[in-house]
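[User] I wish I could look at a protein chain and see how it folds. I have put the entry right below:
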Amino acid sequence: MNLPNKITISRIVLIVCMIISMLVLSFFPDFVAIDVGSSEINLVYLIFTIVFIVAALTDFLDGYLARKLNQVTSFGKFLDPIADKLLNDATMIFLLVPQAYAPNQRDDSTMLTILMICVIVMIARDLVVDALRMIAVEQGKVIAANIFGKIKTVFQMVAIPMLLLNNWPFSYIDGALPEPLKISNIFFYLATIMSLVSGIIYIIQNRHVLKK
């Protein structure tokens, strides 16, 4: 197994560890982490953000090394998008599922509903694309990520840390704006739009796989 694939697998292990820690904390409904400074950033969310950023950086690293070392493999093409989805989808679910220990949980139920709809759309798209990939694998083909899917991933990896950090550092800029117009939410909307666009393109470009 080459180095880029090892990095991808390490990202998956890191994500699993993060998910386990989320589940462990969920068993302590009275647990409340302190806020960091005066920015109202929850300490638990800050830790998750750091782990998320480290995992996201390995996503760019394994792709860069695979191209630079000429070690692009079908296994890597198949596993890398799955690792991305696992990272983003797991974090989005954790972020929006009501957490009793999260003092920075949004009080705006309407905004929370909008974000949950976005998450459902993005996860549904991922399930469809993954199903398409599995069908392609059975036919001996590998469907690699397209440019729109990569853009979607970038938007997600920018929006999720901002949401975890309570819209920091943009909270100093858009604090007077209504919740739907917050910069972190706008990035989330863009991620949802690109998710739909990339999903439609996947289906159109690989419709021959479904026909077979």
Notes: Residues 132 and 207 are 9 Å apart (CA to CA). The longest helix spans residues 109-138. Helices lie at 3-26, 43-68, 74-96, 109-138, 147-164, 183-205, 207-211.
